[in-house]
Amino acid sequence: MVSEKMKTFMTGNSAIRAMFEEGKKMAKLYGKDKVYDFSLGNPSVEPPKEVTDAAVKILLESVPNELHGYPNNSGYEDVRAHIAQLSNKKHGTDYTEKNYVITTGAAAAINISLKVLIDPGDEVIVFAPYFSEYNNYIRNYDGVVVPVMANLETFQPNLELFEKSLTSKTKAVIINTPNNPTGVVYSEDTLKTISEILIKHTQKTGKTIYIISDEPYRELVYGGIKVPFVPDYYKNTFVAYSYSKSLSLPGERIGYVCVNTAADGFDDIVSCLNVANRISGFVNAPTLWQKVIPYCSDLKVDLSIYERNRNDLYNMLKELGYTCVEPQGAFYIFPKTLIPDDKEFCNAAKEFRLLIVPGSSFGCPGFCRISYCIPHDTIINSYESFKLLKEKFSI
Q1: Where residue 1 falls among pLDDT bands split at 50, 70, 90?
Q2: Among 210, 229, 209, CA closest to 219
Q3: d(CA 187, CA 156)
């Protein structure tokens, strides 16, 4: 029989994936062009051509017994040095290869960070709405998830509630900006206040709390928005990054975790991350894609495609009378549902062949997530379905 812990994970299995699977069934039944699937954050924009070119070049020019062998658990030293140099140029840091562990995506980066930081019973604060897999990542190590609801008018964290949620068991805070599912970028003032609250708490208790900044959408921002660099505001920061979104490579599983040099216990943390990467079963990130990074790390996908989708979807929803905050980044919008029960609302949407995800899956009932990393025609053709859904719940 399976473990009791795994039964718990199965009970809370991802509603996003379930909706995606249902979409595939509906597409077979009605035809793909008659189903409007906004459920999954699977990048629809092709990677830059340089990515494919680099992969081919590396494969053709690889030295026998080198490319496909084991690297250091932390990743190739020259690749980590390259990423450090890019950070130093962009953010004014003084990082070296020692600050980085290359991982199989941001998910692995978060998991090994939590493995290093938390003991059973330690608390990890997440700002709701939040990516639902954080629940599983934290519970992997028998940590306790402590959700703190955002200001629902802006989706910036409720910092008064945040301060009240800190306890002697708080060990980490996960930040996700640009945010999944809202598309909101946390402001400089928000980050400054979070830092002040954490520093004050540490001075009072003598216990360090770490921020894990989950940043797969850092490059996906619109209208000249700047994403504040979290280590500039709080020294005890881990940055979990992935090339899944910036280069449209989610299936290649390549990213990194970076630890700020000034973080308390830096040397021990980096050593433990290196071991955690191995004993968690990742061993090392894929070697081919590690080698691709230096060719492509300062590139990004064509954001104009996502920006057009964002603009047209946001304007369409507003025109139809939906209430939503305009996304500043990522590729999601998070409107209020037209009835309090967001699960019932999303089930009703399926009557009109709309696949959207209830906000309760992100710890925020009364809303729904609509992903716009999809073909533009899907957005345009979904107008009538969103209109009929609105009319169904109009008084």
Answers
A1: confident
A2: 229
A3: 8
**Segments making up each domain of the chain, as ranges:** 4-47+302-392, 50-296
What is the Cα Rg of the chain in Å? 21
Q: Residue 275, class by beta-carbon neighbours within 10 Å (0-12 exposed, 13-18 middle, 19+ buried)?
A: middle
CATH architecture for segment(s) 4-47+302-392: Alpha-Beta Complex (3.90)
- E-assigned strand segments in 163-291: 170-176, 210-214, 237-242, 255-259
Token match 């996502």: residue? 306
The predicted-structure confidence for 176-211, as pLDDT tens digits, reads as follows 999 999 999 999 999 999 999 999 999 999 999 999
Under 8 Å between Cβ of 180 and 367: no
DSSP character string of 287-345: HHHHHHHHHHTT----HHHHHHHHHHHHHHHHHHT---PPP-BTTEE-PBPSSS-HHHH
Q: Residue 284, by phi and psi: left (phi above 0), alpha (psi -120 to 50) or beta?
A: beta
CA distance 319 to 387: 10
Residue 142, Ramachandran bin (φ over 0: left; ψ between -120 and 50: alpha; else beta) = left
The Cα 336–Cα 65 span in angstroms is 55
Q: Tell me, what's the pLDDT at 61?
A: 93
Dist CA 173 CA 100 (whole Å): 20
Whether omega before 129 lies within 30 degrees of 0, making that bond cis, reads yes
If you ran DSSP here, which 8-state letter would residue 357 be given? Answer: E
Residue ranges with strand state E in 66-199:
100-103, 123-128, 144-149, 170-176
CATH number of 50-296: 3.40.640.10
